[in-house]
């Protein structure tokens, strides 16, 4: 049954643009559509640019999807043919590391090749990955069950009423005192409420970590689902923020959405550059401030460890605690052998086993019991 | 959707851009359009962007254009209604109760009410602009509370009743995007992402804000600052830093320092972080040589 009022002919092209946006996963509320139409009327558009400005201001696409928005706009209003996939991850959630020394072949490492015989590639191989048949392990179940209780917390700035506490609750005290002619018989107290601490998970998805990548992504998803302020990034030859897709409830859906965004699965590793890039984007860097930072990486890196050392040093000064989980650390007697891990050892609070889901989960759940070193 | 006619004499984004320029703010087309639409549609204007791109300045300029007082609410973690709306003056209430003796007294009268920015804006919607600065620092609870405030512009004070705005106040929100804001908040507002200005525009901003600076100096500073913004710094120089740097270097130059040495000696005005300075110093000479070429 169609009871909608008929749109004026002129407005149809704008309303159908909104429909196109919605079809491409842009959230547009009805009030925004109305505002969009009113804005166009207000501007008495002289050209397409006016319409674009009206669309940007009223439909408010998230900045990181601006490129996709522009493409859809051009497709709809200009009928441009050369439209790629609506969202190819090449937006400001992805930082492409500056290419250095591509083309001129790196001398192969000889003397300081690491003990496991693995080497890190420097080349960029862009691949897409699909996640299928995801099994749930005990470690995952444990994380989901215990994370809400056991993740690190900190004192917030909001206050709550308590029987005892460092602050006086004057409002309540005054209300109570009115009943007793202004005599204060009992002082109300307040204390600072506990809040979940920010968590930042940086996952190495390069070739040398290939066997762990899927499990690590599942853990990241479980963590994002279980706690309110977790940020997740993947890095290899690029740095990609995958927090948003991981917020989708259904795991398979979430991981495939993330897979779609990340384009450097199983490629080379440039950890230092990735962390530098992370710190260079002000709002990313902000995610680390006061956070429990967990880096899951084998630390196999070609090239100078300087960039890595500086980045980790900076990160450790900013964060509450930095944990580096490496599959190479398989026991308490572990001593870092790779140049990268030796360089960063001084700056991390923990350098522990990250070779299995169980050990990663155990470490994350134990973070809440620790104090910053 | 009612379109407001109370933005006197400004009937297009271009007219607003011109008025902002007269208030010493150079807005690009996107910002002028968003601000104009916000005013005309009676919706709050939400400005997002990196620190130092001129978001707060834009709000000040809009207030100047409208000839209104700017009321600023600086957000911080844990900000709540008592800091944003109103608070009772408890010591005074206590005293009043004591002094009243057997008389009856209204301890929730106007005299005991401490007005905070949001209440002040509601009570004088036609003579103020409310700036809610760095909303991303506040927590989710405050954001939800703000959403409610922005949808119907009324506040209920349990002891006194409801305060409603006679007309929709002009509200500007800014965010540095240290966290993602709630979708609903973005939806309720007219939204604009402010980027760093183009080199051309930034040079014009510097010359407008610092009249002593020569054009060549402004251009050199813009080139150097653009270069610095591409480096992994913890605090990239914003527009204000670029203006200060151009001014400081001009001052040193007049005192006898040569170019590009004048820039180098005044770098502390542009980069305010010890680590950033340390990181840049080996490359600074080459950078400045390139910028002043």
UniProtKB/TrEMBL annotation, chain A:
**InterPro entries from the entry?**
UCP010256, Uncharacterised_CoxE, VWF_A, vWFA_dom_sf
* UniProt signal peptide: none
Using the record's annotation, list all stretches that form the VWFA domain.
196-366
Q: Name one Pfam family in it.
A: VWA_CoxE
- Gene3D superfamilies assigned to the protein according to its UniProt record, in alphabetical order: von Willebrand factor, type A domain (3.40.50.410)
Task: Tell me where on the tree of life, at the top rank, the source sits.
Answer: Bacteria
Annotated protein name in UniProt = VWFA domain-containing protein
Q: Which organism is it from?
A: Bradyrhizobium betae
UniProtKB/TrEMBL annotation, chain B:
- AAA+ ATPase domain span: 41-200
The GO molecular function terms of this record are: ATP binding; ATP hydrolysis activity
Q: Which Pfam families match?
A: AAA_5
What is this protein identified as?
ATPase
Q: What is the scientific name of the source organism?
A: Bradyrhizobium betae
**Phylogenetic lineage:** Bacteria, Pseudomonadati, Pseudomonadota, Alphaproteobacteria, Hyphomicrobiales
């Amino acid at each position: 049954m169609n009871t909608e009022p008929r749109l004026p002919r002129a407005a149809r092209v704008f309303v159908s643009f909104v429909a196109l946006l919605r079809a491409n996963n842009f959230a547009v509320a009805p009030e925004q559509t109305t505002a969009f139409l009113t804005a166009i009327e207000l501007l008495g558009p002289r050209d397409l640019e006016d319409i674009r400005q009206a669309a940007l201001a009223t439909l408010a696409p998230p900045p990181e999807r601006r490129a996709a928005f522009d493409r859809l706009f051009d497709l709809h209003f200009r009928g441009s043919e050369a439209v790629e996939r609506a969202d190819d991850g090449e937006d400001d959630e992805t930082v492409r590391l500056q290419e250095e020394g591509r083309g001129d072949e790196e001398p192969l490492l000889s003397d300081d090749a690491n003990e496991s015989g693995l080497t890190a590639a420097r080349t960029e191989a862009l691949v897409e990955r699909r996640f299928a048949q995801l099994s749930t392990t005990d470690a995952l179940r444990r994380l989901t069950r215990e994370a809400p209780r056991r993740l690190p917390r900190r004192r917030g700035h909001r206050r709550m009423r308590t029987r005892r506490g460092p602050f006086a609750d004057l409002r309540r005290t005054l209300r109570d005192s009115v009943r007793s002619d202004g005599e204060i018989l009992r002082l109300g107290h307040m204390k600072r409420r506990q809040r979940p601490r920010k968590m930042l998970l940086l996952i190495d998805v390069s070739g040398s970590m290939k066997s762990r990548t899927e499990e690590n992504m599942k853990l990241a998803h479980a963590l994002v689902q279980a706690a309110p302020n977790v940020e997740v990034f993947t890095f290899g030859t690029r740095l990609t923020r995958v927090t948003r897709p991981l917020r989708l409830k259904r795991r398979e859906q979430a991981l495939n959405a993330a897979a779609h965004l990340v384009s450097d699965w199983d490629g080379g590793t440039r950890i230092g550059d990735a962390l530098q890039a992370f710190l260079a984007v002000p709002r990313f860097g902000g995610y680390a401030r006061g956070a429990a930072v967990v880096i899951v990486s084998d630390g196999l890196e070609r090239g100078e460890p300087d960039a890595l050392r500086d980045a980790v040093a900076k990160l450790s000064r900013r964060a509450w605690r930095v944990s580096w989980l490496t599959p190479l650390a398989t026991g308490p007697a572990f001593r870092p052998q790779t140049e990268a891990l030796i360089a960063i050892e001084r700056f991390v609070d923990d350098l522990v086993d990250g070779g299995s889901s169980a050990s990663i989960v155990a470490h994350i759940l134990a973070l809440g019991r620790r104090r910053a070193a | 959707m009612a379109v407001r006619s109370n933005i006197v004499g400004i009937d297009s984004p271009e007219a607003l851009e011109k008025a902002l320029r007269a208030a010493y703010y150079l807005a690009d087309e996107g910002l002028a359009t968003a601000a104009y639409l916000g005013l005309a549609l009676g919706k709050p204007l939400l400005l997002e962007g990196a620190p130092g791109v001129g978001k707060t300045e834009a709000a000040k300029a809009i207030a100047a254009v409208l000839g209104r007082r700017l009321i600023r609410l600086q957000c911080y973690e844990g900000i709540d209604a008592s800091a944003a709306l109103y608070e009772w003056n408890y010591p005074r209430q206590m005293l009043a109760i004591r002094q009243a003796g057997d008389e009856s007294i209204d301890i929730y009268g106007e005299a005991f009410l401490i007005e905070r920015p949001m209440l002040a804006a509601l009570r004088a919607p036609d003579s103020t602009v409310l700036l809610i600065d760095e909303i991303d620092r506040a927590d989710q609870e405050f954001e939800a509370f703000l959403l409610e405030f922005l949808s119907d512009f009324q506040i209920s004070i349990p002891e006194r009743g409801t305060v409603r705005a006679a007309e929709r106040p002009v509200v500007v929100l800014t965010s540095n995007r240290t966290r993602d804001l709630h979708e609903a908040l973005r939806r309720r507002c007219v939204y604009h992402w402010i980027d760093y200005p183009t080199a051309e525009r930034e040079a014009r901003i510097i010359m407008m804000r610092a009249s002593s600076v020569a054009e060549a100096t402004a251009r050199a500073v813009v080139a150097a600052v653009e270069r610095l913004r591409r480096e992994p710094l913890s605090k990239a120089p914003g527009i204000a830093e670029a203006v200060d740097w151009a001014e400081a270097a001009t001052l040193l130059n007049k005192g006898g320092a040569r170019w590009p040495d004048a820039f180098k000696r005044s770098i502390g005005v542009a980069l305010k972080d010890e680590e950033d300075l340390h990181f840049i110093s080996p490359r600074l000479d080459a950078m400045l040589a390139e910028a002043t070429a």
